[in-house]
Design brief:
Elements: H1 2-28, H2 47-52, H3 69-75, H4 81-94, H5 102-108, H6 114-127, H7 135-141, H8 157-168, H9 173-177, H10 183-193, H11 202-211, H12 217-227, H13 235-242, H14 248-261, H15 266-272, H16 278-294, H17 297-301, H18 304-310, H19 316-327, H20 333-343, H21 349-362, H22 366-378, H23 384-397, H24 405-411, H25 417-430, H26 437-447, H27 455-462
Helix pairs in contact: 3-4, 4-6, 5-6, 6-8, 7-8, 10-12, 13-14, 15-16, 16-19, 18-19, 18-20, 19-20, 19-21, 20-21, 21-23, 22-23, 23-25, 24-25, 25-26
């Protein structure tokens, strides 16, 4: 009997055990966290809505029949605040399709009712980049905070306006730059622009140009500080500041910003070498030279082909800066040398001379450079100025280019007077005591820089075994001797 009673009790207690087990299992399971609503979701309720009594759903808004875009836009001008609020809410639900209503929504940002202003700001944010027309009104909302900065508080109109501006994106840049003259708005608008990457469109370029007007230096400096934080995306705009000849301080700051961006700025600068504006091309070449010297030669060496194209630029200044940029590539001389040889043939003597000096600076193997210049002299397709440059390099190399003497002797018979003159000077620089005097004398006679009557005097001077001597008597241009002036006693 006792055994039966025990079995009966265990049977009665079994359901209770099962209930306890299920309860403990439920307690052991990880609790699912409730998903927090965000402002990104179109139908979610934000914390700001809960606090202010306005949400992004239809709660608190009179739901009527579905209205068209035209009807909703018309209701924005209603005398009823609830109707205006409902219309703004309806346009927000349409999203980008309500682009045409952005101007009408912008007017509601000045509404007397805060609920309506919040609805309008949210609707503009949901329209996105298409709501460019509302940017000026949104920018003014940043100041509607009762003297306190509440632009980070999403329960306020200013906070919702900031979010809407960020959703509009790069298209908001021109409108926000326009308010930089206001010191208070400048700081808040600048904070918004730091989180929006600029886009190189015509409207933004025009806004930058307007900042460079006289009397807007503070606004321009603030915009420059914001742009410098965007790296490569800001290069086209920083170049605009770098061409501000009327504002040297801004120009220096822009070039410093480009240098701080470093190698990431090189592609943008290389693209600017093809711009229609000569000032931008000049600034781009100058800053490429600066980056090659101070930051990264490797990055600039990758755009050698762009710099070579710049050597054909119609502006002499751009060509000179391109040569300087190539000359800065000391670690990549093999890439820069072919372009510099081309630059020697420039019709402007300043560019040609800069290329000659660059080739001399880059050359670690002087004999190798002399051999390459010899090939230039022997080439039939090289221009007159290129041959002059080759003779100049051989002249500077001196005895290291003595293997180039045969090519220089042929160059003495060149149709070009300048080629003949520099070939003669190169031969004079190359000569050594072991070289025959006749080599120099023959070159001098062909150039007609000495008289045949002076041959005997040269022979007497050189017969002492000290080697050849430079001709004593030289003619002036045109082969005319200077007239002696007798002094009266």
């Amino acid at each position: 009997m006792a055994e039966r009673s025990r079995n009966k009790k265990s049977k009665d207690e079994e359901p209770e055990r099962k209930k306890r087990r299920s309860r403990s299992a439920e307690n052991d399971r990880p609790k699912k966290r409730r998903k927090r609503p965000t402002l990104d979701s179109e139908d979610s309720t934000s914390a700001g809505d809960l606090n202010s009594g306005v949400d992004s759903t239809s709660e608190g808004v009179e739901e009527g029949p579905t209205l068209s875009l035209a009807e909703l836009t018309k209701d924005l001008g209603s005398s009823s605040a609830k109707k205006r609020e409902a219309a703004a809410h309806g346009l927000g639900r349409l999203g980008p399709k309500a682009k045409r209503a952005s101007s009408a929504l912008a007017k509601l940002l000045e509404d007397d009712e805060e609920r309506v202003r919040l609805r309008a700001a949210r609707a503009i944010g949901k329209i996105g980049p298409g709501a460019v027309a509302a940017v000026p009104a949104l920018a003014l909302c940043l100041k509607q905070t009762g003297g306190k900065d509440k632009s980070r508080d999403e329960t306020t109109v200013a906070g919702v306006a900031v979010r809407a501006l960020k959703r509009i994106g790069a298209a908001a840049w021109p409108g926000l730059l326009a308010v930089f003259d206001d010191k208070d708005l400048r700081r808040r608008a600048g904070r918004v622009l730091r989180s929006i990457e600029p886009k190189a469109d015509e409207a933004t370029h025009e806004a930058i140009e307007e900042l460079l007007d006289v009397g807007r230096e503070e606004a321009a400096e603030a915009a420059l500080a914001v742009l410098s934080r965007h790296g490569a995306a800001a290069v086209p705009f920083l170049l605009r500041f770098a061409t501000a000849d009327d504002a040297p301080e801004l120009q220096d700051q822009a070039e410093d910003a480009l240098e701080s961006i470093g190698k990431d700025a090189v592609p943008g600068l290389a693209s600017a070498l093809e711009d229609e504006d000569v000032d931008l091309r000049l600034s781009a070449a100058r800053n490429l030279c600066r980056i090659a010297r101070e930051v990264s030669q490797r990055a600039v060496a990758r755009v050698c082909s762009r710099l070579e194209d710049a050597l054909d630029d119609e502006d002499v200044g751009v060509r000179l800066q391109a040569v300087d940029a190539l000359a800065a590539l000391t670690e990549y001389a093999s890439r820069a040398e072919p372009s510099l040889v081309i630059a020697m043939g420039d019709t402007d003597s300043r560019v040609g001379l800069a290329a000659v000096m660059a080739l001399l600076d880059l050359a670690e193997d002087k004999q190798g450079l002399a051999q390459r210049m010899t090939k230039v002299l022997e080439g039939r397709r090289e221009s007159e100025f290129t041959r002059v440059g080759a003779c100049m390099i051989l002249m500077h190399l001196g005895p290291a280019s003595k293997e180039s003497v045969p090519a220089l002797l042929k160059a003495v018979e060149d149709p070009s007077t300048e080629v003949r003159e520099y070939a003669h000077l190169a031969l004079q620089a190359i000569r050594t005591p072991s070289m025959r005097v006749s080599v120099i004398r023959t070159a001098s006679l062909r150039l007609k820089v000495v008289d045949e009557d002076d041959e005997e005097a040269d022979d007497e001077e050189s017969s002492d075994g000290r080697g050849p001597v430079a001709p004593r008597k030289r003619r002036r241009a045109g082969g005319i001797r200077p007239r002696r002036v007798r002094r009266r006693r």
